[in-house]
Each structure stands twice: as structure tokens, then as C-alpha cells.
Amino acid sequence: MTKRLIALLAAGLCCASAFAQVSVSEPWIRATVPVQKSTGAFMKLQSAKPARLVEVRTEAAGRAELHEMAMDGQVMRMRRVEGIELPAGKTVDLASGGYHVMLFDLKRQLKEGEKVDLTLVVQEADKKRQEVKLSVPVKPLTHSAHAGH
Fold this sequence. Notes:
It contains one helix and ten strands. The protein has 149 residues and is mainly β. It has one domain: Immunoglobulin-like (Sandwich), CATH 2.60.40.1890. It starts with a helix and ends in a 10-residue tail after the last strand. About 11% of the residues have low confidence.
């Protein structure tokens, strides 16, 4: 009986760890000026299994979208994307000039030093979704993630 219980518990742990394990590092949001209605959120994401970032939510904005900066001929353009691939074990950098999160229709000014709650929605290959809740610091307008590198 004890061996059977241990086997069931081990199987349960195995299944629980089957969910995409997404880690987030260095998250930040760019501060805004009083009349500004949009800003960007940036971070590094890493998933233990292949997954896809499919949605971002926050109460601080009317809408949050996944975006990409890419060259269109000779012009750098920003466009909305439906998702961002998270290859297993690889870091995906959401940064200025590449993939990032845009927050539109801000409900208030975002000031340096405060924190904003964000929810990332990650979808696995089997279509199961996981929410990753973050409290993201607001950095100065002049902040650059690569400034001391």
C-alpha cells in the first residue's frame, strides 16, 4: 500500500511539472509623462518546454499587445503579433527594437519607482494555458536595459 501511494504521488508530481515552467527575469516598464497614453514593457523569458506567449493583461491599461519591431524595406516598423515563440531552454529577450509588450490607453501616468501588475498568458504545444503573474517596476524614461553592459 505504501509503495502504491508513493507511486501515485510521484506520478502526480510528474504531471504537475508537465506545465510549461516559464521564468521571467529583469522585467521593467518605461515611465510615462502625464499625458502619455502608451508605453512599453520589457523582460527576459525562458520556458522549460516549447511554449508561446499569447497574451498580456494589466489593469493599468485599456489594452496590452505583443509587438515586434522589424525592418520593412529601409524603415523600422512596429507591428502587433499574435504570439511570441518560447523555445525550450532558450532566453527570449523582450526589448526595445525587437519583441516587446505595448500598453495602450493607459489609465494613469506610470511613475518611476512604482510597480504595475502584469499577467502573462503562455500556451503550451497541447494548447494548455498558464498564467504568470508579475509585479513589474517602472523605470525612468531614460532607462536602458543594456546601459551597464
